[in-house]
Structure formats: C-alpha cells, structure tokens
Amino acid sequence: MNKTIGILAHVDAGKTTFSEQVLYHTKSIRSRGRVDHKDSFLDNNDIEKKRGITVFSEQAIFNYKESTYYLVDTPGHADFSAEMERAIKIMDYAIVIISAVEGIQGQTEIIWELLRKHNIPTFFFINKIDRVGADVNRVLKEIKENLTKEVFFIDSTNFSDEVIEFIAEKDEKLLEVYFKDGYQEDLWISSMRKLIKKNEIFPCMSGAALQDEGIEEFLEVFDMLSYTNYDKNETFSGIIYKIRHDNSRNKITYIKALSGSLRVKEELQIEDKIEKVNELRVYNGNKFETVNEVFAGQIFGVTGLLSSKVGFGVGKLQEKANYDLVPTLKSKVLFNEKLNPKDMLNYFKTLEEEDPALNVVWHEKLKEIEVHIMGKIQLEVLKEVVKERFNVDVDFGPCEILYKETIAKETIGCGHFEPLRHYAEVHLRLEPGERNTGIVFLSECSLENLEINYQRLVQTHIFEREHRGVLTGSAITDLKITLINGRSHIKHTSGGDFREATYRALRQGIESTENILLEPYYKFKIDADIDYMGRILSDIQKLNGSFEPPKIFGNKITVVGRGPVATFMNYAMEITEITNGKGRISFKFDGYDVCHNSEAVINEIGYNKNSDMEYTSTSVFCSKGQSYLVPGNEAKEYMHC
Q1: How many domains does the chain have?
Q2: Could you tell me the pTM of the whole model?
Q3: Helix (H) or strand (E) holding 2
Q4: In the prediction, which pLDDT does 44 show?
Q5: At residue 37, does pLDDT exceed 70?
Q6: Neighbour count for residue 442 (Cβ, 10 Å)
Q7: Burial grade of 273 (CB within 10 A; 0-12, 13-18, 19 or more)
Q8: What is the pLDDT of residue 211?
Q9: Which CATH number covers residue 201?
Q10: HEC secondary structure over 244-298
C-alpha cells in the first residue's frame, strides 16, 4: 500500500527532528541527524543547514509493515508557506506537529485551514513533552478551542475507555454494539480508520522527538489507522507538485501518481501538449534511483517534460490547482550594471518555474526585474539561492505592497487592430466581480459573427498575462469579462491580431469607467494580558484595522480582527515591545479589499497611463492602404461591428 504523508508545523515545533526519528526507526537512514548539528537528512540544502530552518519541501521513502510511505517534510516558516501549500495537494494524510510548550501558533492555524480546504485526514503529535513548561492537556484544550472539537488523545495501542466511548459516539451502529456486547477491538479500529479518512475525527499522540520518546508508538498507531485505495489499472493521471533543476540545469518534474501506471518513453499529456518521459526517478532525500515504471500512489521525478508547470494535472487529470497563499509584497532585483539583464531574467524565470508565486515581472523600458514575495526572510534566502545556483550576487530593493485594481461599474470595451494585411476586432463587456474571485471569462458572441477558434483565442489572451490597471499600473482583478462581439477577415487575420485587439479592448473598457485601488489585508489574532487591551485596541484603530469584541479569559484577552498589510506588517515587533515579550500576534492573508489610503498611494506611485505604450487603448485602423491610430476615447465611433 502506497501512502504519502506530510509533516507540517509552525517553525521550531520539531518537525524535521520528528521526520529524522521516523526515518531512523524504519531503517531508511542509518543515523539520526539534527537541525542544530546541520546534518539532518531532509534539510540537505546548504542554505537550510546554515539557517536551521526548512525552506524547500523534500521527500523520503520508508517501509513499515505492509506499506511504502512517501514522507514529505514541508517548510514551517510563514515566508515559505506557498511551498508548503503545494505539497499539501499530494498528501494522503498529514501529521501536524505542535510544541507542548508554545502550543498552537499562527502558522498552525493556517496549516489547519489549508488541510481542511483540501480534505486531508490529519493526525496530531504534541512534541517536546520533555521541556520545561510542557503541558499536553493545555495544548489539547487549545486544539479543541481553536482547531477542532473532534480531536481525541491516544496514549498507547491499548485504547482507553475514553477513546472507546468517543469512537462509539460517532457511529450509531457502533454505539448499539457497545451497549449490547461491549468493546470489540477489530470493529472499533475499522470504524476509526473510516472516520479518520472522512475527516470526522482527528487522533492525537504525544512525545519528545529529540529524546526519541513516543515515535515508535505513533508509527504503530498511524500505520494501523491509515489506508489508501489507489487503482493501478486505470488510465494514468497525476499532479505536478514540484519542479527543480539539477546541477546541469536539467528540469525535473515531480509528480504524484493518482491512478494507473507510467513507463519510461511513454507519452504524457500536459495541457494541449504531448511530451515523452525520458527518465523516471524515485527520490529519497537528494539521492534517487531510476526505475522503468511507477504506479498510482507513488511520488517520483520525471525528466524530459519541458512544458510542465507546478499545480497542473497530467495524463487523464487535466486541471490546474488553485492555491490560497499568495504573496502580498514585491521587490526589485538589484544587480551589477555590467551583467546582462536578459541573463538575469532567465535565472529568475528558472526560479519562477520552481516557485510560481515569485511571479517574475520584466519591465522592458527600465530593464528591471521585479519579484513577488511573502516576506523579508524569503528575500534573504532568494539572495543566497541566486548565488548558490548561478554564482551571481544580487540584492533587493525595499519590500513594497503588491496592490491590485478593479472597476466599480459595468462598461463596454472595444479594440480594433488593422495595420496593412492584418485584421481583428473585439468587443468586451466588463463587470465588477465578487471580491477575490480574480478574472472570469464568458462568451455571448454569436458564431455567425466570430468563429469558435477566434473566440478561444480571445479567452487565451485574457489569461496569458496580468493586465495593468490605470490608477497605479497594478494588476487588474475581480472582473467578469464577457466577449459580446468580434470580427475577423478571411484573408487578412493572422497570428497575433486577436491578441492586439483583445488587449486594446480590455484597456479601453477599463479607461472608460470608474476604477478602484485594492490592497492586501491580514486577518490577525492577538493574545495578551488584559492590562494591554486599551493600548492594543487603540493601535488597531490607528492602523486602519477593525476588530471583533475581545474575548476575555481570566486576565488574558484574545482580539481577532482585520487590517491592511501595509499598516500591520511590522506590528508584531510592536506587540512584543508593548507586552514585554508576553503578547503574540499571528497573521494570515485575508484577500484584497479597497485600499485605505488610495489617493496617497496613487500619488506616490505616479503611474501615467498615457505613457505606458505596452498597455494602450489606442486602436489601429486602415484606410486606402494606410494605417492610422484612433485614441481609446474616440475608438467606439470607428468600430466595424
């Protein structure tokens, strides 16, 4: 039985140490490494060893009883959450590590929400019970209050009366059996397995990974209560969860097989392309062995797939994953003027293949590269990665907020592109979309006016890049775009004509209506002594945030609220200072909303929509063999439709 298990935790909860012990006990590794000794098996990158944190998700393989396990160790630091979320998509089960001292922290709650979104059955392991201040019961209470009431504690393979009754209460038939005949071990275990798989109950155990306490017991219980049902006889399907490049810069595509099997030299469909599998690699840490065939439930590396992208389905599964954790900041890449900008762009495009959240932007006019990031630590690591991988020194400009734009009112946009021997015209209806829904495309255009292949081209050009708004030049979002009309020419329409007409129609529509500047927001949770309540609530208001009525527990308060990333991004340091280190705040991205200081931001950025020739609303017409330009505000009168 193949099982993919993910190890997740807030940074410093002991996740990598736990993984080391599991691999050691299952004889996958000969000796146990330690993060502080810089010799852990899964933190094998020099950057990870130097910093003592997991930055990249890595996989290992071990066998236990009747199953083969693919263990995925994920980053715990918030700045590398996007890497963690991509790994979640391939997990059959998750193991969430929580420190018995620190308890539930901000990243723990983010992890939990993502696991629930993707319906990943979850086990808890309360770690570091040997430390001063450890309190398993307190952490269990925190789990019930903040994550789920359906958690139950297991202290050995001989289930306590409390566990037996907890399971019986979740199943009416089991409850009848319990009252009539009492506890029957096989029946209870079978029921537990199904309830865990359906995400209805969540087991919890405890131990001390560094001291090797509770690891073997956890392994035995986990193996007994987990199962998978992969069909090796179906057509092959899988999902790409990671891309890396080896020392020779060969692209390696990491896939989780969801059904069927795949052999070397077989052809594999990725979107509309068919590519051949050159090599199949099964990785254990940074080492691999080549195999001729892989089967459902396995994770493996493939060479030869040039068009592969993270999050895309392959084979029978042709869909793209949507991720919740997105960057809210951007930064400019600074490099020596003697270096070729296009070479630098190629380096960062390679890194973007591995981490799509970087969303590398090239500003042709300024010859500048911009990257999207989760936080300042990510920039520090990125600097080291570029040096290690490409032997180039770079720096980064200050972190800036990643703004977006949308429209307030419905409008019609039209674009025409007709230089000599070219022809395309596009009419789009633009409507404000629901907040944080992105771009939605529909077509109401008659096939008599525009044949289907051209309509699909319009859709392709809407989604092939981010389009700039007119307030700050930031990406537009939350738009419902409907193709309502269009025209082609049987002789003169050629490649790229509909791209030009679509871009112009979109820009012309945006320019003709009211626009709104959006900024990213955090949802925050503050825990502190009640003595600091007045100061904290006052700060939230000053930072343009909002909050729910504070919850008071004895002499402690919890404040949950929402506020702009721009004002709250450095507030964690203030909370520490205000409360003398006793208070804490956790953040999670809570989507985009109307900017709290739009006018100031627009003035500071100083974007001039009329000088951005890459994004123009001007249409191109032709008369008597001569092309001429018509500004967007006059173009409607010249349209042919």
Answers
A1: 5
A2: 0.85
A3: strand 2-9
A4: 57
A5: no
A6: 13
A7: exposed
A8: 92
A9: 3.40.50.300
A10: EECCCCCEEEEEEEEECEEECCCEEEECCEEEECCEEEEEECCEEEEECEEECCC
